[in-house]
């Protein structure tokens, strides 16, 4: 515990140094280029409290889009991942290479196509998040399901377990840590995507908020939005890392 | 009447329709095991022992011949047989107790009863006090005991064991062998025990079946008429034991490496394991 605090303290030093340097640098920088972090924080706090700014509402708008797209991708990606990783082997050979190609398509580049297909709005945003999230989820789950310890399956089947029981008792718990790894990658991608999509075409959301501040040349809030989005991403990452760790305990212990 | 009757069993590997010659893992394999008998199988690697065990549990089907248990052909996995696999195959996310209760869960035994049964068998294999430990917190020998308790817990008539003590150190191995013998004496189960170790094969068994290398078949069955109840440590240095040991050793010497590259079993996948006959 003590070493944990110590490590956290050490890790925070460069971060603090960065902000101190920024603060000092901004003081000497020409006007309208680099605001001071302290001013940014004050402006952001103000934006939170000011009902006209609607920062919280915009945040929730983005969360709604991320949440829906992520949830859909989680369900579809995991179901497909399990099916292709376990029961449908020849389909795996057929589809996985194709999926890997889809994964490599730059998701930012195809945002305009989604706009054409779905029109600008909720559907389009959810579809973009879904598209970006599903590949890491699908491939991680598929890979993990494929690599389940065969001995455990044999041992369970030898006891006359049904396929459903094998799935519930062996395949699912075995792949659970990897499922969370996939979800963690996906949520990170989802954050990138939603901000990008909202910057290009939207009338609400964090990306829209940010781009509007840019149009108004509100320097404090431009920088503030970036920091705010980063903090949110860190929080989500932290949450999923915790979940992943929770289910990873046995795996780490068993293989060390 | 024999408990297990293996008749003219054959099993080949090799792709359907491929031009390369089929490889026989087992060919005309015959063995008869009586109720309550302890039979060990020794053979060189590649003699089809794993294939035989898979067929006995019902994880795969024979091509020709059949396996009868209580005069009924084996048609798939069932709780009348239990297998202790090489390398324990314990569930790392389940405690010892939950591991032991797995078969009972599948059987549909209610929770309270499960607990009583698992308590009993955990005590029997000397793991009392470790019920709530995870497998990785146990030594190799203890893990193996947990694996044995898991099989005993659902009370199969037939115990199949695939080199269960191969991974534990020599001293633990001897303790485990004696424990297995005393459990066997107490429960009266029919045991088929596969091993590489001649001393283990002779020391434990009523009968040793010596196998020949590919195709796997029974070369000879040797009756072990050493006195019971037996303890490995005390029986090991008797002249009778040495004669039997030497007899088995001699039989194994004839097994030369087969010409050419040794045939290899095809790689298995999760799909094969879940439903071997219906992989898409």
From TrEMBL, chain A:
Against SUPFAM superfamilies, the record matches this protein to: MetI-like
Q: List UniProt keywords, sorted A-Z.
A: Cell membrane, Membrane, Transmembrane, Transmembrane helix, Transport
Please verify whether the record's keywords include Transport: yes
Q: Which CDD domains match?
A: TM_PBP2
InterPro entries, per database record: MetI-like, MetI-like_sf
Q: Where are the transmembrane segments?
A: 66-88, 109-138, 189-211, 217-240
What is the name of this protein? NitT/TauT family transport system permease protein
Organism per entry: Sporobacter termitidis DSM 10068
Q: What is the lineage of its organism?
A: Bacteria, Bacillati, Bacillota, Clostridia, Eubacteriales
TrEMBL record, chain B:
Q: Which domain of life is it from?
A: Bacteria
Q: Record's Pfam families?
A: ABC_tran (PF00005)
Entry annotated with the keyword Cell wall biogenesis/degradation: no
Provide the alphabetized UniProt keywords.
ATP-binding, Nucleotide-binding, Transport
Q: Name one GO molecular function term.
A: ATP binding
**SUPFAM superfamilies xrefs:** P-loop containing nucleoside triphosphate hydrolases
Q: Establish whether keyword Nucleotidyltransferase is in the entry.
A: no
Question: What positions does the domain ABC transporter occupy?
Answer: 4-238
The protein depicted here goes by the name NitT/TauT family transport system ATP-binding protein
